[in-house]
Amino acid sequence: MQQKVTIIAEAGVNHNGSAEMAVRLIDAAAKAGADAVKFQTFRTEQVMISDAPKAIYQLKQTSMEESQYEMVRKFELDEAAHFRLQKHAEEREIAFISTAFDLDSLHFLLSMNVPFLKIASGEIENAPLLRMAALSGKKVLLSTGMSDLGEIEEALGVLAFGYLERAGAKGSPGREAFRQAYDSEAGRNALETHVSLLHCTTEYPAPFSEVNLRVIQTLRQCFALPVGYSDHTAGIAVPIAAAALGASVLEKHLTLDHDLPGPDHRASLEPEEFARMVQEIRRAEQSIGGPVKRPSPSELRNRAIVRKSLVAACPIQKGECYTEYNLAAKRPAGGRSPMEYFDLLGKKADRSYKEDEVIR
């Protein structure tokens, strides 16, 4: 039976830079039944240059006059806010995690002793960040949006190198060293112990036609690692389908209000809808079950009632031959199976039967 799906409420920057709103997002995630609530940790000047362009979806949801740098800077939470949120999450019995987008932020999250590290899709080529994440010895959740299999393999090579380096392996980091680490048995073992992948379509909201949930199975087959799904579609249908396909982790954006200003609110779920998604995912994972086809306990209770027996379609005298006119299949089961119908035709009855009497 499939293990319980880990559900992450992606609060991200939907707090709009307000620690008070971030606390309310934690409350909403905990009430909805999420296993973890995730934020984003960054120092804007270390993440982008001052004139970095906005993505199209950001332009649609925010001021065109405002640069991406100016927009993102407003969403920074200071260290004190992080510790406050971590404490509040602990009080609400929900895991606190965050995505680091730069090395200083990664070091800070490690000082907070977060349970694992999330690497965003945009950082899949950020070798220094990947290496440092692995050197920490923490488990890593690697999102794979905007990437192909070769790029994922290369990122896994960096992680494998970092884990081996932590274990005492010598060598200088570089693409060839990363490839060798990925190809080594020790490197693959380190990845199997520490790394999970997230399939993702990096668009907000993501078009249903571009989701390609079958990639979950492809990633699992190619890399022999646990695979989850980070969802950016509208509504809850796709994450439920991902759970049915065996996603180990499901991540979905959470907002307090779709109409709040900011880049991600429109592609997020409000608290009541998020809670409904959690409920439906839990139902979906219960329904997956095992691969053996056999009657379930509740089916066994119904089988005798729903299946049929051979009965006399009209009175049959002893010694009379069974024919298609005097034999019928009717509920309940318990007598001769209708599978014997053709074998009985032409044979003589060894006793008399009244109409609708079960043939013994």
> Percent helix among the residues?
40-55%
Helices and strands, in order, run as EHEHHHHEHEHEHHHEHEHEHHEEH
Main beta-sheet annotation = 8 strands, parallel
CATH superfamily of the largest domain: Aldolase class I
Architecture blueprint of SSEs:
Layout: E1 6-12, H1 19-32, E2 36-41, H2 44-47, H3 56-61, H4 68-73, H5 79-91, E3 95-100, H6 103-111, E4 117-119, H7 127-135, E5 140-143, H8 149-166, H9 175-183, H10 185-194, E6 195-200, H11 215-223, E7 227-231, H12 237-244, E8 249-253, H13 271-288, H14 297-306, E9 309-312, E10 327-330, H15 341-344
Parallel strand pairs: 1-2, 1-8, 2-3, 4-5, 5-6, 6-7, 7-8
Antiparallel strand pairs: 9-10
Walkthrough of the structure:
- The chain is of the alpha/beta class.
- It has two domains: 6-288, Aldolase class I (TIM Barrel, Alpha-Beta Barrel), CATH 3.20.20; 297-344, no CATH class.
- The protein is 41% helix and 14% strand.
- Strands 3-2-1-8-7-6-5-4 form an eight-stranded parallel β-sheet.
- The radius of gyration is 29 Å and the shape is elongated.
